Amino acid sequence: MPAIRIIRHTLLDSEEAWRRLTDWERHGAAVPLTRAIIETPPPTHTGTRFTMRTGVGRITFDDPMEVTLWQPPGDGSAGLVRLVKHGRVVRGRAEIELRPSPRGGCEAEWREELRVRGLGRPFDPLVAAAARLFFTRALEALLRP
Question: Do 97 and 109 touch, CB atoms closer than 8 A?
């Protein structure tokens, strides 16, 4: 299962960065041709379910996810959200962690482990490269003031 890790520093405080990175509808707006379908009522918590639908017209795929760990940052502590992907096409998990930075602001770390149905291990480097590009752009867009 290909794994990626992306780290970005932001001058946003942890609470604001957390709000942006866990606003699932904002994820849909940050990723081209994608929209979020929230399946559980707010606020987000362990057990929240949502689907990211990507595509054009009838050519789409769904990436259903569930929040399995919800630890917002507070009082100088790190925040961590873990998502499990339950899709027919994409499976795996994602984690977004925020840590206070000694430089001010915070450090955001996005980790993904994913498997794309129908693509075996020989495709892992390609999947990892595409995921790194895709999620780096999303992370940067979500943290942009």
Answer: yes
Residue 52 CB neighbour total at 10 angstroms: 20
The predicted structure's pLDDT at residue 145: 74
CA angle, residues 37, 114, 19, in degrees to nearest 5: 45
Evaluate if pTM is beyond 0.85.
yes
- How far, in Å, are 62, 69, 106 from residue 58 at the CA level? 12, 33, 40
Contact predicate 80/95, CB 8 Å: yes
State both tokens at 119: 């693509």
In the predicted model, what is the mean pLDDT of the chain? 91
Nearest to 135 by CA among 105, 77, 92, 104: 92
Report whether 82 contacts 69 (CB < 8 A).
yes
Give the DSSP letter of residue 121. Answer: G
* Residue 78 to residue 126: CA distance in whole angstroms: 32
